[in-house]
Each structure stands twice: as C-alpha cells, then as structure tokens.
Amino acid sequence: MDDPIMVEVKDLHFSRGNTDIFRGVDLQIPLGKITAIMGPSGTGKTTLLKLIGGQLVPDRGQVLIDGQDVHQLSRRSLFKLRRRMGMLFQSGALFSDLDVFENVAFPLRVHTELPNAMVRDIVLMKLQAVGLRGARHLMPSELSGGMARRVALARAVALDPDLVLYDEPFVGQDPISMGVLVQLIKKVNQALGLTAVMVSHDIKETLSIADYVYIIADGKVMAHGTPQTLDVNDDAHVKQFVHGEPDGPVPFHYPAPDFFDDILAPAGQFS
Amino acid sequence: MMRHIHALGRATLDIVSSIGRAGLFLIQSIVCLPSREGFHLWVRQMHFVGVMSGAIVLVSGLFIGMVLALQGFTILVGFGADEALGQMVALSLVRELAPVVAALLFAGRAGSALTAEIGLMKATEQLTSMEMIGVDPLRRIVAPRLWAGFVSLPILTVMFAVVGIWGGYLVGVDWLGVYEGSYWSNMQDSVDFVDDVLNGMIKSLVFGLVVTWIAVFQGYDLIPTSEGISRATTRTVVYASLAVLGLDFVLTALMFGDLG
Question: Residues A220, A23: contact at Cβ < 8 Å?
C-alpha cells in the first residue's frame, strides 16, 4: 500500500476481564479508500471500531488518526477530533425523541453556526442521497430497519467527515435493503472522497466494495490484502472464512466434554 | 474464610469505585457554562420532571393535609387545644412532611423515569452515537435533567405544603368546626420563616439534588440490557428513598437538634 495513511493501529492489546480480545493488532487504513475489517462473530470487530473512535482505551498500543494518538487526547480534543469522524452504528442509534430531519440536522446544529435555511438545504441533500427526503417528518420508531440505517448514514456524513466508521452495515437487512446500502456506501464514499473503515462479516457484499481487507481472528490480523488476493489465499483460517465453510480452524462446536460420555453420564453426575 | 474476605474486599472496592464514578459524573455534568441551547433543554426537562410530577404531588399533599387535620384534631380536642390545629398542620408539613414526602414521590415518579429514559438511550447506543458526533452526553442529556430536578423539587415541595395546609383547613375548619381565625392566626404566630420555611426549603434542595443525581447516574452507569434497566430503575427508587430518609434525619438533627 503506497497510499497516504489516515488511521494507523500499532501493536494494539485489549482485554475484557480475563479474556484477551486483541493481542497485538497492526493495521493501516489508507486515505480515501474503503478498508474492511472482517472476521468471525465474537472476534472483537466492533470493539476495534470503538478503540479507533476513542470510546475504549487499549491496554497497550496506539491508534493514530492523522498522526494524533487518540487515547492521549484530552476529552475536549477527542470530541473535536470526532467532529471529523462519522460513525454508522449497527442499530442505527437514531435519537428517538427527534424526527428524521432533526436527526440528520443534529450534527450541523451543534457544530456549526449555519442559518436555518442552509441547514435545511444540507439536510435535504443528504436525505435525497439516501432516498428518504419524503420521510423527513417520520419518527425513528416509524422507520423500518433498513430505512433507519439509511437515515443514520445521512447523519454520519452530515458534516462531510474525513473518516467514516461503519459497524456491521449489512446485518439483518433484506436483500433489497442490503443492495441499496451496498450501492449507497460505495456512492457516498466516492462522491465525498471519504476514508471508510467497515466492520462486517457479510463476505460477498463487503468484498464487492472494499479496496483493502483485513481478516481478524484469535486477537490478531490473520491476513490482509485486496479482495482479489484474499480470494485465492491458501491459509486455512482465511479459506474457511472467505468461503464460508462450517468447520475448520474455527470449530463448529463450542468446547465441551466428549459427546458420548456426556449423554451416558449417570443421573447424579449431570452438569 | 478466604473466599468471604475476598468477596468483602471486592464489594468494598466496587462501592468505593462506584462512589468515585458518581462524584466525577456529578462534577463533570454540573460544572458547565450556561448557554441558550442548554436553557431550552432545561426548560423541556422542567416540563417533564417538574410539571408532569405536579398532579401526584398536589393530590398527595391534599390528602396528607386532610389526614393530618383529622388525626391532629382527635388528639388536640382531648386537651381542649383544637385551636392549635393550624399550627400543628403547618409545622408538620413545612418542616417534615412536605420536603420528605414530595421527595419520595418525586423519586418514584420522576427519578425512575429518568433512569429508564437514560438507560434506554444507552442500550440503543444513542449516548454512544452522541459521543461519536462529538457532543458530550453529560452536558446535553444529564446536565439539563440534573438542574431540572434540583430546581423543580423545591417548587413541588412548596405546592405540597400549600395544598396540605388548605386540605387541613377543609377538614379542620369546614368539617370539624375549628374556629377559622384561630386556625390561621396560630399558624401565623408559630411558623417562623427562617427556622421552619427556609429550613424546609434547604432540605428539599438537598433532596432534589440527591434524588436526581442518583436517578441520572443509575441510568448512565447501568448494564445496557432489559434486565439491567429494570434493576437500575428499582435501585433508583430504593437508594433515593433511603437517601432522603437518612439525610432527613441528619439535616433535622443539624437544624433543630440544639433546640432541646
């Protein structure tokens, strides 16, 4: 990768309780590209996004955004840095007491002094881009899952951020919404020249729009490369994940005692 | 044995760290510059926390005043002192019952709602998304609610006392036939503004801060699951009620302890 680097993750260690989530993760997110971070469920992909956004603090290691160490910043500087970031949450995370229009207008109202007419124009442009200009007066509770995520996308890019973090953007979507979201993310990214980090385990959709992919498993980066190189990768972990094989290095069964012994255990020894 | 010591140590650490977090939380949310936006948010919360609690406080105040007059009359009349009914009703209400009962009702009505509201915002990632937009939820969500609780409880307490005194009047004067002039004049003679009214108001200011603080902190600090929200809401009502009753004793001892 010769592109300039927007986000750099160096030797990241993070644990919850006694469980190690990351044991030395190194990533480089190039400027103006869509970088996907993939891996089986429970590998801490969302945790990684939260570490990049400064919501969690690592045990060791650094996250540099544009050269600034996110976890060394004061609360005020961190909030300032976050104005240059947008994040699309898995649940949409729209503010339930504001309607669609006000949700998208929220970042503009709190961070800019723009007159109302201009805020209105910008919000309508963003809603037009996600196809929901007509839904501007609806409340979040009246939206379907796919619509909520599109509104959340409009809100995430309302301030034209430099970096957008997508947390599982395709989870739980029907095929039509999924197709719409894939196209939207690609289009919005190209039109605004954003740097995007996308966490996902939807292989087909993600590989179709990502410029570069990291695969994480067992707390480490298992493989990385362009979608084309990963498709022909020979590593057992990568092969199992990319081709969706049910059994392999990531076992189908949660660790358990021998099945035969378990079934035939005497009544007094049930665990 | 070692296990018990270990558990005791862990529980102590949990309590101390929780108090520390709650203290930091209070300072970070309450210390901020006033702004026009903040004022609008505060007014909205005054409506939700204060105005919406008005009905329950007024109705309870009325009934408590009426019961006080009824109970007081049956005792006082035995000593031929039924003219002192106004004094008894007013002093009990202003010094004790209005601040304490209004605070308990406030904890049940507004406190539990605040915890559930903030907790649900946390569970649906609204607080996190606000942080990621670069807006501090302590300033935008917590601070207006804290200030609204702090300001509205003393006002509710005054309403409670006024309606209670009126309720006492209805029962004592209109129903039981206590002389109207003695009801009011005894009250006027015996209720001191600084000793009684002001001390009652100081109590309700303290209760307002403590109850709202407990409610918003429990909402902000809960485990974001449905079980977590239900537990935190219960904790708010329990902790806030105990805090009000405990602090009431401490404040009463400080204010009136040297009278004997």
Answer: yes
In this prediction, residue A1 carries a pLDDT of 54
Per-residue pLDDT of chain B (260 residues; tens, 9 = 90+): 888 998 999 899 988 988 888 888 888 887 776 677 788 889 999 999 999 999 999 999 999 999 999 999 999 988 888 889 999 999 999 999 999 999 999 999 999 999 999 999 999 889 988 888 888 888 888 999 999 999 999 999 999 999 999 999 999 999 998 899 999 999 999 988 888 899 999 999 999 999 999 999 999 999 888 899 999 999 999 999 999 999 999 999 998 877 55
**DSSP code string of B179-199:** -HHHHHHHHHHH--IIIIIIH
Question: B125 and A80 in contact by Cβ < 8 A?
Answer: no
Alpha-carbon distance of A243 to A207, in angstroms, equals: 12
- Per DSSP, B176 falls in state T
Within 8 A by CB and 6+ apart from B221, the residues are B18, B21, B22, B25, B232
**Residue B99 in contact with residue B157, Cβ under 8 Å?**
yes
Tokens standing for B226? Answer: 């449905």
Which residues of chain B are within 8 Å of residue A111 when distances are taken between CB atoms?
Answer: 133-134
Task: Please judge whether A83 and B121 are an interchain contact, meaning their C-beta atoms are less than 8 angstroms apart.
Answer: no
- Contact predicate B41/A109, CB 8 Å: no
DSSP string, A3-18: SPEEEEEEEEEEEETT
Asked if A217 contacts A237 with a C-beta cutoff of 8 angstroms, the reply is yes
Task: Say which amino acid occupies A1.
Answer: M
Residue B30's pLDDT is 79
Rounded Cα distance between A192 and A40, Å, is 30
Let me know: does A139 contact A128? Beta carbons within 8 Å: no
Of B120, B124, B134, the CB nearest to A111: B134
CB contact (8 A) between residue B136 and residue A79: yes
Residue of chain B with shortest Cα separation from A164: B132
> Which residues 4-43 on chain B approach chain A with CB closer than 8 angstroms?
37
- Please report how the helices A100-111 and A116-129 are oriented relative to each other, as an axis angle in degrees rounded to 10: 130
Cβ A132 vs Cβ A151: under 8 Å: yes
User: B217, exposed or middle or buried, with CB in 10 Å at 0-12, 13-18, 19+?
Assistant: buried
- Among chain A, residues having any CB pair with chain B shorter than 8 Å are 53, 55, 75, 79-83, 85-87, 89-91, 93-96, 106-107, 110-111, 152, 155, 165
**What averages of pLDDT result for each successive group of 10 residues across chain A (271 residues)?**
81 86 89 87 84 89 89 86 86 88 92 90 90 90 88 89 88 80 84 87 84 86 84 76 72 77 78 64
Query: What is the distance between the alpha carbons of residues A60 and A10, in angstroms, rounded to a whole number?
Result: 9
Nearest to B129 among A81, A83, A93 (CB): A93
